[in-house]
Amino acid sequence: MAAGFLTVPQMAVLTFGSIYMRDNLHIDLTSIAIILIGVQIGGGLLRIWSGYYTDKKKNRIALLKYYAILGGMASLSLMLCLMVSNTYIGIIFIVLTGLFGHAWHGIAYTEVAVKAGIERAGTALGMIGTTVFITSFLTPIIITDIAHSYGWRTVWGTVTILTFASLLCFISLAKKEKATLSN
Questions:
Q1: Helix H segments across the chain?
Q2: pLDDT tens digits for range 29-56
Q3: What residue spans define the domains of the chain?
């Protein structure tokens, strides 16, 4: 479930970030394209760095929690930026929301495979991939309705809530692991 929640900011930025930037930040299409290309490339680099870092530190779950917190804070800041109406601050927070929405994939998939073990890694990876896929097509559908009915502040507020919801999954995981170690 955490993977689904963590997918929301990435898909929100990739599917509706351009519309948001054009309509609210009044950015031209070429600049929007450059920004979103930067988010994609930066997100890929952050995935590689995250894998390298957690391979050394053995702290995948901790970094996933940090990405959830940082992604939630970035989208919350984006929601609050609508009150300020500053183009540069809006760009910074949409980029950060996109980057943190991208960064978690590699380490989450690795952690799922490790926790599942060799016997069940394929099933576990299929489940996380399906969760990401479902969230990837539900997010634009939901954003369309929210943006149309309630506006962009509510869109980014919803992204914030769903991103922070991933933390609840990590708390649940920690409790299960603690119970397993106790037995």
A1: 2-24, 29-57, 60-84, 87-103, 105-116, 121-150, 152-182
A2: 999 999 999 999 999 999 999 999 999 9
A3: 2-182
